[in-house]
Amino acid sequence: MIFPKKHISNPRFNLLFKTLSVLILRVLGVTLLFGVTLFLTNNFSASLIGKYDFVRSFLLVFGSLTLLGTEHSILYFAGKLNGVKEKQHIKSIYIKMISLIFMAYLVLTTIVFLLNKEFINSFFNDLDTYFLIFNTTMIIFFYSISILNFEVLRTLNYTTLSELYRNIIKYLPFFLGAILINYLEENQLLINVYLIGFILIGIISTYQVFNKFKKSAAKPNNYIGMTEVFKKSYPMAISGMAFFLLQSIDVLFLKKYTNNQTIAYYSVAVKFVLIIALVINAININIASKIAELYTLKKIIELKKILNQGTKFMFIGSLILCILIVTFSSQILSFFGEEYIASETALKIMVLSQGVCSFFGSTAVYLNMTGKQKQFQNILTVAVLINFILNFYLIPIYGMVGAAISFSFSLFFWNILSVIIIYKKDRILMLGWL
Predict the structure, then answer these.
(1) Where are the alpha helices (DSSP H) in 223-343?
(2) 8 Å CB contact between 263 and 54
(3) Distance between CA atoms of 293 and 291, rounded to whole angstroms?
(4) Which residues cross the membrane (predicted)?
(5) Angle 90-114/46-67 helices, nearest 10 degrees?
(6) What Cα–Cα distance (Å) separates residue 346 from each residue in 153, 185, 269, 361, 398?
(7) Strand, helix or coil at 350?
(8) How many Cβ atoms sit within 10 Å of the Cβ of residue 416?
C-alpha cells in the first residue's frame, strides 16, 4: 500500500502508522502467547503450570532489579542524544549498561547462595521453591541482557526486529521445547526448558546488537560516563521493579496461602490484562523517545499534541477490547479448561480497571522520559506498599478475587497521582485530549 507524501509527513499519521505496525506484531505475539498457554493448560498439570508461573513472576521481579532500569534509560538517552544530534554515543552507553547488569547479577547470585533453603521451602509450603529460585537466578543475566537488547535495537531504528524478538522469538524456544518434552513424556522438564530459552535468546540478540552497531558505524567513547548512566537508570530500575512487583506480589501471596493450581487459574486471567496492555505499550513505545526529545528541546505544544493523540488511540483501543473480553469471559476461559472459569470474577475486575486507567494516558512514560524518575519512583513505592498490604489481608480471605482487587486499587492509585504530579510540575494535563 502506497501512502501520499502529505500523509507520510503528517505527525499524526506517522504515530498511527508506527503504532499499527507495532500493534500487528504485538497481536501476533499475544496470539502466540495464548497459543502456548492453551497448549500448556491442555497438556500439563495445573500444579506444574503454577510452578512455571511462579518462576515467571520471580524472573520478572528480580530480572528488573538486575536490569537496573537500563531498558528504560536507553530510550531516555536515545531521545536526549537525538535531540542534540549525538546519537552515535549509544554503543558506549550500551557497553556500560552491560557492565552494570553483570555486577547486579553477581550481587543477586551471592544473596541467593546465602539464603537458607529450609526457610524458603517452609515459608512457601513447597519443597521445590528454593530449587526453582536458584535455577531462575542462574539465568537472570541472560534474561536481562535480552530485554536490554530489544530496546537497543529499537533505538537503532530496527523497530520491526525489536518487536519480533519481544513478541515472537522470545516465546519460540519455550513453545518448541514444551512440544518436544510433551511428545517425549518428560513434562517435568518444563521449567528447565523455559529458562534455557533465555540463554539462547540472550546470546543471539547480543550478537545481533553488536552487528547492528558495526553497520551504524557507532564508536565507543566516554561522552556519557558510567556514573551518569547509573544515576539515570537506577530510579527507573526501582520504578521498573515496582511495576513488576505490582504484577507479582499477588502470585507470591497466592503461592503462600493457596496452591499451585490457584496460581495457574489466576495467571491465565492476568494474561488477558496483557491484551489491554498491548494497546497501551504499542503506543508508549512509539512516543517514548519523542517525548524525551521534545521535552529537551522545550517544544511543549508539539509535546502536548503527541501526548493527546497517543492517549486517544490508547483509550479507544482499550475500551473495545475490554467490552469484548468481559462480555465473553466465561467462554474464553473455558478454552483453557473448565476449571479455569474459577478465575472469571478476578478477570473482569482486572481487565476493567486496566481499561479505565488507559484514560489517563502515558503517565509512566512521561515521568520517566522527562527527568522525573525520582517522583515516579516514589509514587510506585507507595503503590507497592499499598498492594502488599491489600494482598496480605485480602488473599487469605478472598483468594484470586482479593488479588484482583489489590491489583486494581494500586493501578488507580499510581495513575491518578501521576496525573496530578505531571500537572503540578509542567502544567500538562494528561486528560487534555477530551
Answers:
(1) 226-257, 260-296, 300-327, 329-334
(2) yes
(3) 5
(4) 20-40, 60-81, 93-115, 130-152, 164-183, 189-210, 234-254, 266-292, 313-337, 349-367, 379-398, 404-423
(5) 130
(6) 36, 33, 7, 24, 10
(7) helix
(8) 14
Residue 376 to residue 39: CA distance in whole angstroms:
38
- The enclosing H or E element of 165 equals none
Determine if the pTM surpasses 0.85. Answer: no
| Per-residue pLDDT at 6 | 47
What are the CA-CA distances from residue 324 to residues 44, 122, 328, 345, 407 (Å)? 28, 42, 6, 15, 21
Q: Is the dihedral of CA 200, 55, 275, 37 positive or negative?
A: positive
Q: What share of the chain is helix, strand, coil (3-state, %, to 5)?
A: 85, 0, 15
Cα dihedral 229/230/235/238 (nearest 10): 120
DSSP letter for 259, please.
Answer: -
Q: Which residues contact 387 (CB under 8 A, 6 or more apart)?
A: 245, 246, 249, 250, 406, 407, 409, 410
Angle (CA) 64 65 67, round 5°: 60
Q: In angstroms, rounded to a whole number, what is the distance separating the alpha carbons of residues 76 and 73?
A: 5
| Cell output for 1 | 500500500
Q: For the chain (length 434 residues), average pLDDT per consecutive 10?
A: 47 59 78 88 90 90 87 77 60 88 94 89 85 94 94 84 88 93 92 95 93 67 70 73 82 89 91 82 79 84 86 86 91 89 94 89 85 84 94 94 95 92 86 56
Cβ-contact 88, 110 below 8 angstroms: no
Question: What's the grid cell of residue 196?
Answer: 534455557
Backbone angles phi, psi at 259, to 5 degrees: -155, 175
Q: What is the grid cell recorded at 194? A: 523455559
CA dist., res. 273 & res. 296, Å (int): 33
Q: Is 269:347 a contact under the CB 8 Å cutoff?
A: yes
Query: Within 10 Å of residue 391's Cβ, how many Cβ atoms?
Result: 23
Phi, psi of 429 (to 5 degrees): -95, 115
Per-residue cell: 303: 509535546
Number of H helices, E strands in the chain: 19, 0
Grid cell, residue 310, equals 497517543
Q: What is the amino acid identity at position 307?
A: L
Instruction: Tell me which DSSP letter residue 412 carries.
Output: H
The residue type at 264: A
| Cα four-point dihedral sign 177, 178, 182, 188 | positive
| Start-end of H helices in 328-399 | 329-334, 344-357, 363-369, 373-398
**Runs of H (alpha helix) within 156-225:** 159-164, 172-183, 190-216
Nearest to 416 by CA among 403, 431, 427: 431
